[in-house]
Amino acid sequence: MPSVCLTDEWTLIIMHVVDHSESSTKDQIVSATRKLIGDRGIARVTTKQIAETAGCAEGTIFRYFDRKEDLLLAAVQANFPAFKDSLMEITGGSSRERLRRLGLKLIRFFEQIVPASVAVLSDAELTRRHRERVRERNGGPQRLYMVVSRFIESEQARGALDPDLSSVHLASALLGPCFFRVFNRLSLGEDALQMTDEEFVAGLVESLWEGVRPASASPAEQPHHEPPSAGRRRKRRK
Q1: 19 and 120 in one domain?
Q2: Within a 10 A sphere around the Cβ of 227, how many other Cβ atoms?
Q3: Over the stretch 167-211, which tens digit does the pLDDT of each residue have?
Q4: What pLDDT, on the 0 to 100 scale, is given for residue 227?
Q5: Residue 2 within a domain
Q6: Band of the pLDDT at 230, cuts 50, 70, 90?
Q7: Is residue 42 part of a domain?
Q8: How many separate domains does the chain show?
Q9: How many CA atoms are closer than 13 Å to the CA of 213, on its beta-carbon side?
């Protein structure tokens, strides 16, 4: 039987396919874990259930994670890189439109991480290990502050927002309401405000705009206040 000689090019192609397959399997395991945590709670999730949901053998999980706890922690931290990259997609439109798109991305990000985060922080041992892992990797929630603050700074540099404002405080003004909207919805199982995420974010940005807009904002960037819908208009008490 003749021997087969692979060229360097084919070797690289095969290695790329293998690496992509390994990464895909790991991502599926993490995604399945996050889904099960949200559906059943962290205490009831087993590696057998994770494997069934991910479509792999139970032993495959331990090729990527030494212990179940490591997988649970990975599920909490999995979405941050994708969120960070997604901010690069926020281009074009007015500065208010870009802030609204940022707000929507924050809501989607919190929707993905809050269930797993709450589950991990409800377990003392997982919380301890989570904090150790965060310190070792210089990670944690402050990274979210950093990337949102940098987005704000880029808007300030292009003259779209008041450059004298603290980017950290402006980031906080967006992070807090977006997080609480998701937390409130998950807690109640419904939207207490009875408005879409788009309406919520638009109202939030509109409320902040007068204080964050640059002094040289064009007429198109000046705030325009629309009356609330009849269903949401509230009577003032005398």
Answers
A1: no
A2: 7
A3: 999 999 999 999 999 999 988 888 888 899 999 999 999 999 999
A4: 40
A5: no
A6: very low
A7: yes
A8: 2
A9: 20
Longest dimension (CA), the chain: 96
Q: Which of 214, 215, 217, 182 lies closest to 197 in space, CA to CA?
A: 182
- Considering the domain architecture, whether residues 99 and 210 belong to the same structural domain is answered as yes
In a domain, 227, yes or no: no
pLDDT at 224 over 80: no
Q: Answer for the pair 117, 76: CB distance below 8 angstroms, yes or no.
A: yes
Distance CA 43, CA 218 (A): 54
Q: Are residues 62 and 158 in the same domain?
A: no
CATH number, residue 28: 1.10.10.60
Residues 64 and 89 in one domain: no
Which range marks the domain in which residue 64 is found?
9-68
pTM exceeding the 0.90 threshold for the entire prediction: no
Whether residue 154 is predicted with pLDDT greater than 90 in this model: the reply is yes
